[in-house]
Amino acid sequence: MTKSIEFYFDFSSPYSYIGYKEIKSLQKKNLFNIKFMPVFLGGLHNKAGVTPAAFNKFKSKYMIKDTKLISQKKNIVFNFNSYFPIKTVNFMRGVIIAQAEDFEKIYIEKVFNAIWKDSLNMNDPIVINKVLKNIDLNPDTFFSKISNQKIKDKLRKLTDEALKKGIFGAPTFLVNKKIFWGQDRLSYAIDEIKK
After folding, report:
1. Distance of CA 149 to CAs 22, 141, 153, Å?
2. For strand 172-175 and strand 178-181, is the pairing parallel, antiparallel, or unpaired?
3. What is the CATH number of the domain that holds 170?
4. Overall number of domains in the chain
5. pTM over 0.90
């Protein structure tokens, strides 16, 4: 039986992007499935009492240098988005739609790349529409679906469930009910899955 790593993420997190690129690469070399677990990081931080790095001038300045350093070390194409922070709640709701309609992998790849590879202004409706069309999604249909109260409630529920498991940030990897927080803990999650 192939084991799974639960990958808790939000597109707003540059570390989630790095973790995503790395877990996709490692999946090719190891036998495990990735279970994508979307959360609304702003809500998760708020409920966990965490102040995001984006709102601390010292941490945010460090984060820009740190993410560039890590991505260079791991040969990941990365550009810190000059429009950061990006409002991603709609994109995270979109993951739920993508999972239900079987275009999860392409959707996650394209949205992550738009924000952290191509450094697009994903706060701009015109840019967002272009990215959605590039995934063969009709923007009007997409926004209609993510505005559905059931989808909003589902993302809230997934975020609340993550917090109940002890998850307080992104990316987080969950294996055998053990939490590994941060992209730099992925190798530990891989070790755990091999047990």
Report:
1. 33, 15, 6
2. antiparallel
3. 3.40.30.10
4. 1
5. yes
